[in-house]
Design goal:
Elements lengths: L3 E3 L2 E11 L4 H15 L2 H6 L7 E5 L8 E9 L8 E6 L3 E8 L4 H18 L2 E2 L4 E5 L10 E9 L2
Length: 156
């Protein structure tokens, strides 16, 4: 798989807590996105950046049956509604994986491949920090939609 490496940053956005039991996160996070589009959160966040890039961030290393906090946000520290928060993403080495295809299916397939194929094949280990999805301002239901998955890693 293609990948590249970068360092840490901060993000401002809206959060939710979700269980990973029985793949609940794979169902509830897409719903969180739909709600955030409908209530104007996504448009408000995109307006904060000239490139309109959004991030989806998992703030915890959740094992099956645990909970994680997920953030829909933009890079940088910004002011916004009371329900928004700014979170410092710790410095880390990030493996960055491209995703092509309609959301959420395409990006969920990349997540599966990272953990089932890339980690075992490369010897890299998860660094234990937040995981990131980078989502450009395009029509994310198209088969050609380009996004990214960032995973914090340590070298073997």
């Amino acid at each position: 798989m293609e990948y590249r490496l970068v360092e840490g940053f901060s993000v401002t956005g809206k959060t939710m807590t979700v269980s990973t039991t029985n793949g609940e996160n794979f169902r509830r996070i897409p719903q969180f996105w739909r709600t955030s589009y409908a209530d104007g959160t996504v448009d408000s966040l995109r307006a904060l950046r000239p490139d309109g890039l959004l991030t989806g961030i998992c703030l915890a290393d959740a094992l099956p049956g645990e909970q994680l906090t997920y953030v829909i946000g933009v890079e940088g520290a910004h002011h916004g509604p009371a329900e928004w928060t700014t979170i410092a993403i710790p410095a880390s080495t990030w493996a960055i994986f491209p995703s092509t295809g309609a959301l959420p299916d395409a990006i969920q397939r990349v997540w599966t491949r990272i953990f089932e194929e890339w980690f075992p094949a490369t010897g890299y280990q998860h660094a234990g920090g937040p995981e990131v999805e980078v989502l450009p301002p395009r029509d994310d239901v198209l088969a050609t939609y380009q996004s990214q998955v960032w995973v914090p890693v340590v070298r073997p």
